[in-house]
């Protein structure tokens, strides 16, 4: 799952998450950032760590499929 949510009540619109994301997960709609490519997130936590308002939550659960038994 990786990037789980943006708390828009806390988000100041600084776009740091959009600027820093190495996987280009975020997009802009006007001045608002949204999660466009959640599956591309590699859980680096840069967006969560650099968000000055603590508005981004990255989940450690990636929802990876279990390996086949052979």
From TrEMBL:
Superkingdom, taxonomy of origin: Bacteria
PROSITE patterns: 4FE4S_FER_1, 4FE4S_FER_2
This protein's record includes keyword ATP-binding: no
Pfam family, one: Fer4_9
Annotated InterPro entries: 4Fe4S_Fe-S-bd (IPR017896), 4Fe4S_Fe_S_CS (IPR017900), Fe-S_Ferredoxin (IPR050572)
Positions of the 4Fe-4S ferredoxin-type domain: 1-31, 32-61
UniProt keyword annotations, A-Z: 4Fe-4S, Iron, Iron-sulfur, Metal-binding
Gene Ontology molecular function, alphabetical: 4 iron, 4 sulfur cluster binding; metal ion binding
Protein's name according to its UniProt entry: 4Fe-4S ferredoxin-type domain-containing protein
């Amino acid at each position: 799952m990786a990037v789980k949510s943006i708390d828009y009540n806390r988000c100041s619109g600084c776009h740091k998450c959009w600027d820093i994301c190495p996987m280009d997960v975020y997009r802009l709609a006007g001045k608002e950032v949204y999660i466009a490519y959640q599956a591309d997130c590699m859980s680096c936590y840069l967006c969560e760590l650099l968000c000055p308002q603590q508005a981004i939550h990255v989940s450690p659960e990636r929802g990876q499929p279990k390996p086949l038994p052979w």
